[in-house]
Amino acid sequence: MAIINTQEMLADARHRHYAVGAFNVENMEFVQAVIWAAEELCAPVIIQTSVNTLKYATPEMFLSMVKTCADTVKVPVAIHLDHGSTMFNIMSCVKAGYKSVMFDGSMLPYEANVEQTRSVVELCKSIGVSVEAELGAISGKEGAPKESDSLYTNPEVAEEFVNRTGVDSLAVSIGTVHGLYKAEPKLDYERLSTIRNCVESPLVLHGASGLSVDHLRECIARGITKVNIATELRCAWTNACRQYMVENPNVFDPKKASKLGREAVMNVVKEKIFILGSNSMA
Ligand code: G3H
Ligand code: ZN
Question: Which candidate in 82, 104, 149, 253 is catalytic?
């Protein structure tokens, strides 16, 4: 199946009350693992690449791997730039053929975030590329954030931000962090419900690695439509490959360890698809 825009995928998820998993990939085996898991469970899926990952290989390289693999399956697959923070990040993915990007201006002063996000939306809308933006800061890499009105997404400001920028989806800050949690995550569900009442566009949950089944299901029940998962996949890959190499120090075929890494990533993706309720939704 051809690669599709995230907009229609998220519209369906919003309508049918499930969330689409957006999985960060690092190499060819991650791409295969995510797409094969989605195909096995008949789930729509989003593959995303961070800016650092795109420095390791190019948007063209990732897009061609995703297209090649997506062509062999029936489920809808989208490819998305995660946390682009400059026009250069956006343009390099758009030029390569990405149909979905995130512009993360959350560290900018509010007015600058509005202005820059709006410029990205103007450029992308005219060529059919959907745009996710962020309001409020999702901290990381470690530890749980202290609740603070300046860090968490303000629902009224979110409404104004979406109206002024025209973004297709909005990443919200409600207490999740990127990377590993050092303390029990404390999510502000009330805030999420209020944002949902103020904002029509699909809402995105970042920093989903390490959240429990209950956390994820509650967030989806209160209106989250896209769930981003990166760290748990990296851990699964690295642990599986490391264990094989430690146990088999005389094997020099990289495919042996990589195959186990791929299986480990695929298992995590399948587990998340069930939790998000996107299985059988394709
Ligand atoms: O943008 C990517 C995500 O927010 C992933 O966060 O590494 O905590 O799963 P995570
Ligand atoms: Zn994120």
Answer: 82
CA distance 6 to 200: 16
Q: Who's near 246: CB < 8 A, 6+ residues apart?
A: none
Tens digit of pLDDT for each residue in 237-258? 999 999 999 999 999 999 999 9
Alpha carbon 61 to its chain's center: 19
**Under DSSP, is residue 179 helix (H, G, I), strand (E, B) or coil?**
coil
C-alpha–C-alpha distance, residues 83 and 106, integer Å: 10
Q: What is the pLDDT of residues 75-107, one digit of tens each?
A: 999 999 999 999 999 999 999 999 999 999 999
pTM, to two decimals: 0.96
Q: Looking up tokens 């979110």, which residue turns up?
A: 158
Active site residue 188: no
Distance CA 20, CA 151 (A): 25
Beta-carbon contacts of residue 240 (< 8 Å; ≥ 6 apart)? 257, 260, 261, 263, 264
Pocket test for ligand 1, best of 26, 178, 269 (most atoms within 8 A of CB): 178
Identity at 61, one-letter amino acid code: M
Query: Could you count the other beta carbons within 10 Å of the beta carbon of residue 182?
Result: 10
Which contiguous run of DSSP H or E holds residue 228?
strand 224-229
- Dihedral sign, Cα of residue 171, residue 233, residue 78, residue 141: positive
How far apart, in whole angstroms, are the C-alpha atoms of residue 179 and residue 274?
22
